[in-house]
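Sequence only, no structure available. Ideas?
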Amino acid sequence: MIRLFSHLQSSVGKKMGLAMTGLGLVVFVVFHMLGNLQLFEGPHALNGYAAFLRDMPIVLWGVRIGLLSMAAVHIGLALQLSMRNRRARPVEYTIHRYRRASIASRTMAISGMALLLFVGFHLLHLTAGVIDPGFADRRDPEGYRDVYGKVVHAFQNPFMVVLYLAGQLGLGLHLSHAIASSVQTMGFEHAALNRLLKAFGPMIGLIVVLGNVAIILAVFLGIVR
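Reply:
I predicted one. C-alpha cells follow.
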C-alpha cells in the first residue's frame, strides 16, 4: 500500500493518473455527443432519451459524481505536474524552439483552461438551466421535459452559437493531443503503430467536434426547428 502511494506521488504515477482520468473523460465526451445527435431524429427521440436517463437517478447521479470526481482529479494532477515542471526549470528558456510539436501540444494548458470554463458554462446553461431558465421546466406534448426545445431555443441565439463554437475549438485542440499522449503514457506504443496512434487523437477529436458543430449549425441555419 505504501509503495502504491509512493508511486502515485511520483511524476510517473501522476502522469498515469492524468492519462487514465483523461481517457475516461474522453469516453464520456464521445457518448455524450452520440446521445445528443438524436436531435436529428426529432423531439420524441431526444426528449425520450433524456427521460430514460432521468428514470435511473441512482445510475445518473453515480455517473455525474464519478465524472466530477474524475475531472477534479484530472485537473489537480495537471496542475501538480505543471508546478513540478516549473520548479524543475525555474528559469525560462530565452528562445523557444518547437521541434515536431503540434499547436495542440503547445497549447494544452490554454485549451484546458478554456475547456474548463466552457464546461462550467454549459452545465449552468443546458444542464442546470441557471442561464436562460425559460425552458427549464417546459414539457413537450408527451409529458417529457422539452430538452429538444431548449437546445433549439439556445442555438437560435447567435451569441450562444459563437460561444459554443469557440468551446468546440478548445475541445478539439485538447482532445487532439491528449488522447494520443494518454495512450502512449499508458504504454500502448509500438514502432509499427506510431503513425496510427498519433492520428488516433486528432481523428477522435475531429469526430466529436464535427458531431457537436453539426448540432449547433443545424439549429442556427434552420435545418432543425
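Residues 2-220 form a domain with the 3 helical TM bundles of succinate and fumarate reductases fold (CATH 1.20.1300).
Hope that gets you unstuck.
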